[in-house]
């Protein structure tokens, strides 16, 4: 049996952008229940691939290099609780057409090399807390959730790997590291 790696295509904000988002969310994260995602791990998954055999990695990289989509900007405006995923995330304006085109192109690239990417439509969001419960007025979050206008220029995309550090499953957000394996520029 071939070795596998847990892979996904993602957008990665610069460290200063991620720190600014974390600072905007800090008051709510302090009172919310769940596991905060460390700032270096903040990213946007565009296309989740799951367990991928090592033998497919070279073909996946070649095919990803054939994706040509214009650069775009994502706008984040609010924090939102996503109940199905049980996450607290930064969300915002609808994805521009180029962002949707990137998500579709990456899913197609994965399928072209025999992978079965996650079929859910892409919702641009940055997960800030996992295993979250819905904040309620009794936990101190009755004040309005912060509204903001944080713009993320997207000039490239990444192939990334989710790596478990050690065997501590108690706090997965602290025991996961995301390694960027390759990147490709967007057009323009």
Counted by DSSP, the helix tally is 4
Question: Largest beta sheet, briefly?
Answer: 5 strands, antiparallel
What fraction, in percent, of the residue positions are helical?
10-25%
Specify the overall morphology: globular
Number of domains: 1
| End-to-end distance | 42 Å
Radius of gyration: 17 Å
The CATH class designation is Alpha Beta
**Series of secondary-structure elements, N-terminal to C-terminal:** EHEEHEEHEEEHE
Counting DSSP E segments of at least 2 residues, the number of strands comes to 9
CATH topology grouping:
Cyclic Phosphodiesterase, Chain: A
For the record, what is the CATH homologous superfamily label?
Cyclic phosphodiesterase
Q: Which class best fits the helix and strand makeup?
A: alpha+beta
**Low-confidence sequence ranges:** none
Question: How much of the residues is beta strand, in percent?
Answer: 35-45%
- Give the averaged pLDDT, no decimals: 89
Major β-sheet strand ordering = 2-6-5-4-7
CATH architecture tag:
Alpha-Beta Complex
């Amino acid at each position: 049996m071939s070795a596998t790696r847990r892979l996904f295509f993602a957008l990665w904000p610069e460290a200063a952008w991620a720190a600014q988002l974390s600072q905007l969310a800090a008051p709510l994260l302090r009172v919310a229940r769940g596991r905060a995602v460390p700032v270096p791990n903040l990213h946007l998954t565009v296309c989740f691939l799951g367990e991928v055999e090592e033998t497919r990695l070279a073909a996946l990289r070649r095919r990803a290099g054939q994706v040509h989509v214009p650069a775009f900007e994502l706008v984040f405006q609010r924090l939102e609780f996503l109940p199905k995923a049980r996450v607290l995330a930064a969300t915002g304006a609808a994805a521009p057409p180029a962002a949707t085109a990137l998500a579709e192109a990456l899913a197609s690239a994965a399928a072209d090399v025999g992978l079965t990417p996650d079929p859910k439509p892409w919702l641009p969001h940055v997960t800030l807390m996992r295993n979250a419960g819905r904040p309620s007025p009794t936990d101190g979050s009755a004040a309005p959730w912060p509204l903001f206008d944080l713009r993320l220029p997207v000039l490239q995309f990444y192939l990334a790997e989710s790596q478990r550090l050690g065997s501590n499953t108690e706090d997965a957000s602290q025991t996961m590291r995301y390694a960027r394996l390759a990147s490709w520029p967007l057009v323009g």
